[in-house]
Amino acid sequence: MIALKWSVVFLGLALTAFGTAAAERPLSGEFNVDDPPQIAPAFAAEESEIVPLQAVDESYRLPKTSYPTHYDIQLRTDVHTGERQFQGTVAIHLNVVAATNSIVVHHRSLTIQSAKLVLVPTAGEPQELDDPTWTYDTRVEQLSFKSVNPLNPDSYILTVTYAGRLSNNQDGFYMSSYVDAQNRTVYLATTQFESTSARMAFPCYDEPALKATFALQITHSRFYTANSNMEYDFEIDGDYRISKFKVTPIMSTYLLAFVVSDFAYKGPATHRVHARANAINEVDFAVEAGQIILEKLDTHLGIGYYDHMPTMKQFAIPDFAAGAMENWGLVTYREQYLLFNSELSTYRTKTNIATVIAHEYAHQWFGNLVSPEWWEYIWLNEGFATLYEYYATHMAYPEVGYWELFNTQVIQAAMVPDGLDSTRPMTWNADTPASIGSLFDRVAYPKSGSVLNMMRNVLGEDNWTAGLKAYLTARQLNTANSDHLYTGLQSAIQGKNVLPDGVTVKDIMESWATEKGYPVLSVRRTYETGSVIISQERFISDRKVPNTNIWMIPYNFVRQSRADFDDLNTFSWLSTKAARISTDVSANEWIIFNKQQVGYYRVNYDDANWELITNALINNVDSIHRLNRAQLIDDAYWLARSGRLDLEILMKLLTYLPNETEYAPWTAANNVLSYFNGKLRGTPDYENFTTLVNHLIRKVYATLEVDSVSESEPLLHKYLKQTISTWACMVGNEDCLKRTKAALQKEVTEGVKVHPDIATVVYCQGLRTADAAEYQHLYKRIYSTQNWAFRSMIITALGCSENKEFLKAFLQTAIASNGAGVEINYKSAERTQIVQAVYSGGRAGVDALIEFLRDPDMVREFISRLGINTLNSAISNIASRTNNQEELNMLNDLLTDLGENITPQTAESARATVQANFAWQQSSEGLLTVNFVEEYVDSIVPEPPTTTEGPTVTPGPTTVSQAPSTTTAGSTTTEDDGGAATIAVSITLLVSAVAVALFN
Questions:
Q1: 934 in active site
Q2: Cα–Cα 20 to 30 A to 167, which of 319, 452, 669, 831?
């Protein structure tokens, strides 16, 4: 499962990098690849910190007295009418393995009506036992069927009839809906069972290790179709169709899935994509990409998908809480992760579709064919799926550059949350459904994917794939824990001198899987002798704390005179706290560790080496690999934030950026500049900061066509263009503002649509000073489509306006209900997104939101429609964007006006946030930043006038409160609000409000 497309939403981190796939990287001559890897000699060894044992409540686990072998499930639904009630019967074939008088299974929110228990002895006829009685423990969600007679070890069938109700929270067996071409609401039923919600559809042994086969029958409208993991036959019974599915392979309950809908489909019989009829023309790319990616994974892993499943079906679900779900043979997606419309969808949408398909298809092996023994090993699912999310798309489309997104979207993104003191190890237990759900986090996904990719490079591609095939073959149709993976990988390298003598795959992996966080490798050179001391300690992002953590760190390094960054298969090892290594690197050349940032750790150097690196980049940007340039910026930033590096070293490093033209380093730089932008906006020093940014981006901006897209424009160039042009417009570049405004005006007045790949910047920046006609034009486009990714982009853009009256009118549409007679056609998550778009778009939006919330009537509607949590979030975000006394006065007035609508804790927290902002301005970090920026701006030599056309930069920034995010805001598709409104009424609400604001 991919939860909310984690790689799109990581703390506003930028989304791409530039590099080469390991399979294509040649080995250099610096190391003799025939020699075994070396462990660095110990310099100062200490014992590793021991992770304390977890306290878990085993009462949430089912007793081990019985286990299932097969389920016969019969369901009946009238979802086509909008009816949520459903009926069900399940016959659970089970084996009792220890004498008991109770069969215990899970259920949640079902009404049990009757139960029968039959003994099925190995020899003899089945024997019906007395009807069991049942009790239910709501705390652990366990349903116990008690028999009058003891149940001895044997085979039984427990048949339960029950009723349920389709949920409305996109969990379990739930109802979804969409609006068809005739503007009618159409209902469908679908499932989301991972991790503990199969029990909402039928009583079951809802634990991943308790695998069984499933035979499903669904009775539904004859005008609908039912789909599940397997193929089916059907018969007609009056107005109903009875769909009977073939028996599945043995699998975990959370992988069962079914959809009852009127969807259309495209694709060959063995690989179809299903969607609502009015979106079926947007599935062509998903059909193509799915087939290619599945074929590449087949070949790569050496185990055919179709050896176990007859077909692959992909479903675009209108309301889907998760990003996508890997149900075996029937993968479900939030619509924006499957539907691509070339006239509306951006390059980011297409990338998301390809990578999410690859993620879910990787799960067909990692999770489905081999399932986790228990949820503590969920990284065996999600870590592999995250790695292959990028690697499988690279194999399918090597010319596009998808793999080159891995460093920034995964490695650097993972390091941010994993650098917190509160992080957890990869292998980590859980008991309650809530705690199990919390395991699907950034440790399970990007951190685990990063560690696995590091091991892929350590072992080498051939050994890696051989080891994975051994692991998957040995555990197929079964469960696995981490030891099973290590055994498979170890078997592929026996006798090959891949690892140092006496060191196993388990030794290395356990140091990463059972240890919280990750290390920083400190490199201290003795320049006279070439000797280098390397040491490790756990990196914690907000402070430097002595610790005794020890990882087995694979390291390599590059020297300036032999800058061979492409040998990624040769490593030495640091397995102690510190070690001394000898080199012949001369004193006047730099040394860089962790080639292309394959290793999951940060690197810090002594000041002299940082200076050598900085000077080299200023003189020749290409002397260091682009991925290492990104790593250097990212590491220096976080090392400075944690007190491990002088801030001036980071700031000096950034001064090489005027010559940088690659996206990966600019991604890392974007994060740094965003941080300082948020701290300095609204202060007297902000103008100097924008002047600095103008100077850093001037050269690369001049090479970009921000208002057009060429057919041959590479993917990474599009990412770069969006990042740079957003900064350019944000800090007042006249050329950028002129071009984006002109492109928007041309769409409004001449009907020349802005190309989707530049629409994010053009719409946002063009709207900053837009008039009512331009604002209304984009507002209307929300209602002309049900392409949710496009709608999300428009909502975000509408928040960029600097006209507070437009923004307040926009906010009013978010809380409008039946007051205008017809409900506006927003998804509920889109309403919340409107609020987010307004406060994120600029300081004008923050001010507009404050004024809006000072109206008691608006506050009542706001809370009623969007909930108190959305109000609390809005207050928190206003506070985080408050940097001066005038803004604080506005916030205090708002808090006073809100009164009892918010808790004292919310108000106190908001004021504390502002005080932290003010404190930063007087902190050492703040003062050093301001001083460096001022000196740098003073040192800028004005460029001579030129007669050639090019960007004209003005020092005055537009008024913004947040740095550009290089992510496209994701639309969270949730429950439909009762059907579509007429577009005219919706537009009238906004147009009227805008007209009032403009002319009264």
A1: no
A2: 831
